[in-house]
Specification:
By secondary structure, this protein is α/β, with parallel strands linked by helices. The chain contains nine helices and twelve strands. Helix 1 packs across helix 9 and helix 3 packs across helix 5.
Length: 317
């Protein structure tokens, strides 16, 4: 219900970054920044608005005043599904604030793999002069799993390179710059046709483990694989095996089921693999843009209005 919120809570990694912007936007209100989950557990009964990437579980039965959880990224899989979270609590994410950056980073990964830039860097480190051939992208097919805002942005950039673009979208409705839009049930069909596969799906119960060994085996020999979505969508050991056995031509992976990526993960040393530490959407002003969404949602909550980027709990995004 509408009403002024006097205190806003956030965890250290995000609250400290937003403190100056918060004091400017809400000079008469207080931002409480928690350092540890234990403090959150002790104080949750007084929380109305919370900003957190991974809100600690197990305390929602005491969250009697909680009205909004703002997630600082697009994914909400660290929170949902959460049956113990009161139905009255609204959830919003920050989708859209990093759409260009995600698309640019994805395109950079496609180009790096296709033109074998990691090999060039490795050869330079060894002072090894050895010529090699890359993949021509003009005329190649890119398959984008998840033609949401980011996936569509990737599609437009790939189309500008002369690529044929196919992909999946929940609605199956056509999109500009995409030659063929299919429903999620056609995932295997996309994998079978694509020279480059890009994963931009949300992590939901439906997509958890979607790209298992069988699905990866459906990909074209020597195809390239890129994941900038969530690690839980992909069977990582199966991906590493496909790379080491030469069934895939290369992979660029920015997201992992466990982060930081454990030292023992086979992806660290998998053949023709580029590992990046979940940075596809990060820029120096990222938290400032998160703040813009967060602060506007506080105002909208107080006015009883619809929120920016409100999450549908049923769909998980």
């Amino acid at each position: 219900m509408p009403g002024t919120i006097h205190t806003v809570h956030a965890f250290h990694a995000f609250g400290e970054a937003l403190r100056d912007g918060f004091s400017t936007a809400f000079p008469e209100r207080e931002l409480v920044v928690w350092e540890e989950p234990e403090a959150f557990a002790r104080g949750i009964d007084g929380v109305e608005v919370l900003l957190a990437l991974r809100p600690p579980r197990g305390h929602w039965d005491r969250a009697r005043r909680l009205r909004l959880i703002q997630m600082p990224g697009a994914g909400v899989d660290s929170l949902l599904p959460e049956p113990n979270l009161p139905a009255s609590v609204r959830i919003a994410n920050a989708r859209g604030i990093h759409e260009p950056e995600m698309a640019e980073f994805t395109l950079a990964l496609i180009l790096a793999l296709a033109k074998r830039i990691p090999r060039a860097a490795a050869q330079q480190a060894r002072r090894d002069w050895k010529m090699y051939a890359g993949l021509r992208l003009d005329g190649a097919t890119v398959g984008i799993l998840g033609l949401g805002a980011i996936g569509h942005s990737v599609a437009r950039r790939c189309k500008a390179l002369g690529m044929r673009v196919i992909g999946t979208r929940r609605s199956g409705e056509p999109l500009d710059s995409v030659d063929c839009v299919l429903g999620p049930e056609a995932t295997r069909q996309v994998l079978e046709q694509a020279d480059v596969v890009v994963v931009v799906l949300p992590l939901t119960p439906e997509t958890q483990g979607l790209l298992d060994a069988g699905m990866l085996a459906a990909m074209k020999p020597r195809a390239l694989f890129i994941n900038v979505a969530r690690g839980g969508i992909v069977d990582e050991p199966a991906l590493a095996r496909a790379l080491d056995e030469g069934r895939l031509g290369g992979a660029a992976v920015d997201v992992f089921e466990q982060e930081p990526l454990p030292e023992g993960s086979p992806l660290w040393s998998a053949r023709n693999t580029l590992v990046t530490p979940h940075v596809a959407g990060l820029t120096r002003d990222y938290m400032s843009r998160v703040g813009d969404v967060f602060f506007e949602n506080i105002r909208r909550l107080e006015r009883g209005e619809s929120l920016l980027n409100e999450v549908d709990r049923g769909r998980g995004y």
